[in-house]
Amino acid sequence: MRTPKKGLVRAEARWEAERAALAQETRRLAGAIASADAKRESQKARVVPRHLAIYEDVRRRRGGIAVARVAGGNCGGCRVGIPEAVRKRAFDPDQLAQCPNCERILYVG
Ligand SMILES: [Zn+2]
Prior knowledge:
Blueprint: H1 4-44, H2 49-61, E1 67-71, E2 74-75, H3 84-91, E3 105-107
Parallel strand pairs: 1-3
Antiparallel strand pairs: 1-2
The chain binds zinc ion (ZN).
């Protein structure tokens, strides 16, 4: 028959194992975030400054999501239809196409 103390010891052992696993996951995610931040910073230099400013502005105003895919002629962010001229711009890698409704930067692919 198990005594309450043995149950407590087992619960503490489980808790310690979970705590250690979570600490390891925290370290792994911190490393992944640092890596993504470094990659993001290195990519900034490749972006036209005016486009980067628009990206940062839209990202701030749209809950952290500044880019949307054109899907079936609609903005993947707000689902509103994209005019043909804007859709054509989204195909051009040298131009910035923005959704006329939510202003997210559009891409095709
Ligand atoms: Zn939109």
